[in-house]
Design brief:
By secondary structure, the protein is of the alpha+beta class. Helix content is 25%, strand content 28%. The chain folds into two domains: 3-155, 2-Layer Sandwich (Ribosomal Protein S5, domain 2); 163-277, 2-Layer Sandwich (Alpha-Beta Plaits), CATH 3.30.70.890. The two termini are 18 Å apart.
Length: 285
């Protein structure tokens, strides 16, 4: 095999709790993350060098791009000749959807398959954590409780019988600013301990009443237009709505599985991007 194509999915944070700031400058978090069917497209071809092409001109194509950084760090651990990575971006950057982290994880997946590289689970997760905090999640099943700075993964089995409306405004929110403005200890939270086990749909939707993103208040304060969008999603019948990660994307969870049931009308600003998504499971790696 000389070439492989993959789809790297986005994620949402169903809840996100910031527990405190660590000595290394990162924040200790607990979050429930779910992969969704919004994808970047990645093609990897055998080559004599490592190189990256990307159709999004605002993104770097050097090691600052996590996709190429992943390939470089993997090559430092396990030799392979090289790879040409072609990245087509569909996941909006700077939206809290984990596109860059997913690209990195799926470059690891793709190169490992292309060159028949075998790593232990510990080696895979250690490599992913060196690339970025969210990268290990995308080597999981796509449903997990995330702790530490985001690198510790506890897989969990959750229902997938719901739909998601994802709305991405034409602005980015700053992760560093969102964390910097957060007043730790004054955040809302009641920990849903039942999530330590796989749960049934009825319990899952009841537990959503406890879900909260600690960064949301800061993000909505900086981007008040998101507050209006959240109110619209709630009026449209969603059972839970929140920003994902540090924003700026906002999502609503709907019990219905029919896209036609989502009545948003014309109230969404024209420059917002709207995606209709489903929760998904990721293939084993």
């Amino acid at each position: 095999m000389d070439k492989i194509s993959l789809k790297a999915p986005a994620k949402i944070n169903l809840y996100l709790k910031v527990l405190g700031k660590r000595e290394d400058g990162y924040h200790e978090i607990e979050s429930l993350m779910q992969a969704i069917d919004l994808y970047d497209d990645i093609t990897i071809e055998r080559s004599d060098i490592l190189e990256l092409e990307c159709d999004e001109p605002s993104l770097p194509v050097d090691e600052k791009n996590l996709a190429l950084k992943a390939a470089i760090l993997l090559q430092q651990r396990v030799y392979f000749s090289g790879a040409k990575i072609v990245l087509k971006k569909n996941i909006p950057a700077g939206s809290g959807l984990g596109g860059g982290s997913s690209d990195a994880a799926f470059v690891i997946r793709g190169i490992s398959r292309l060159f028949d590289i075998s790593l232990s689970l510990e080696e895979k997760l250690d490599l992913a954590a060196d690339i970025g905090s969210d990268v290990p999640f995308f080597l999981s099943t796509g449903q997990a409780i995330i702790t530490g700075r985001g690198e510790k993964i506890s897989p969990i089995k959750l229902p997938t019988d719901y739909r998601i409306i994802l709305i991405v405004p034409p602005v980015m929110s700053s992760t560093s600013e969102a964390y910097g403005k957060l007043k730790i200890g004054l955040t809302k939270w009641a920990r849903p301990v039942l999530l330590k086990r796989g749960i049934e749909s009825s319990s899952f939707y009841r537990l959503m009443e406890l879900f909260y993103n600690d960064l949301e208040e800061t993000v909505l304060g900086d981007l008040p237009e998101l507050e209006k969008i959240k109110e619209l999603l709630i009026r449209s019948g969603c059972i839970y709505s929140s920003v994902t990660g540090s924003g700026s994307a906002l999502f609503g969870v709907f019990r219905s599985t029919k896209t036609d049931d989502f009545k948003l009308g014309n109230e969404i600003e024209r420059d917002c991007r709207v995606f209709f998504c489903r929760p998904i499971l990721l293939p084993p790696f």
